[in-house]
UniProtKB/TrEMBL annotation:
Protein family membership: Belongs to the DeSI family.
GO molecular function: deubiquitinase activity
Name of this protein: PPPDE domain-containing protein
Domain of life of the organism encoding this protein: Eukaryota
Length: 209
């Protein structure tokens, strides 16, 4: 009997150890959704072909798409979430990229998103120097160890290097810059899985990205 009891105990410990190992090896897919903000046409098609489109991007993880946009509310993050694949008004969905995987737990993922969102405040948004693609690259790097594709922000880098030759519409947020989403800083008050308007007063709630 003592021997059987010992074997049973070892078996239980082995099962628990195996369970912990399985949990530690579980991984979560990290994807990037890419949208073209220029109106459909020959110019947009040509720029997409050469990799210089004016793009918006979001990070898809655990059933939400996280992105960054600008607003005028001091101290509030510009990071918001929507349902994955929700196309901004006037924009065009271009592609979905499976960027990689993270072995972090759901709680660790949420903590990382919160940490990154604190670095991307709404009033700090700039179409050329701190935009949605900067956020995407930073977040996926924190989650997977690899930054986002270099071509995502090629148009912004051109704008910084050659401001005089960049079309004015590249610098000014196009009509697609008005977003329906849930600001991450307000997410604790409203935790509805559907997309929400950012707030109630239009003059304070338009966010550009």
């Amino acid at each position: 009997m003592p021997r059987a009891s010992t074997q049973s105990t070892r078996s239980t410990r082995s099962t628990r150890s195996s369970h912990r190992s399985t949990l530690s090896l579980s991984r979560t897919e990290v994807k990037i959704n890419v949208y073209d903000l220029l109106p459909p046409g020959k110019l947009a098609s040509a720029l997409w072909f050469v990799g210089s489109s004016l793009l918006h991007s979001g990070v898809v993880i655990n059933g939400r798409e996280y992105a960054y946009g600008g607003h005028a509310r001091p101290g509030l993050s510009g990071v918001y979430w929507t349902k994955p694949g929700q196309v901004p008004p006037g924009a065009l969905f271009q592609c979905e990229i499976i960027h990689g995987f993270t072995f972090a737990t759901e709680a660790e993922i949420e903590a990382t998103i919160r940490d990154v969102s604190a670095e991307f405040l709404g009033p700090s948004y700039n179409l050329l120097t701190l935009n949605c693609n900067h956020f995407t690259s930073h977040l996926v790097e924190r989650l997977t160890g690899r930054p986002g594709p270099n071509w995502l922000n090629r148009a912004a880098r051109i704008g910084v290097a050659l401001p005089c030759v960049v079309p004015r519409e590249w610098v000014q947020p196009p009509p697609a810059e008005i977003a329906d989403g849930e600001l991450l800083d307000e997410d604790e008050e409203q935790d509805d899985e559907s997309s929400h308007m950012l707030a109630t007063k239009p003059q304070q709630n338009s966010i550009s990205r």
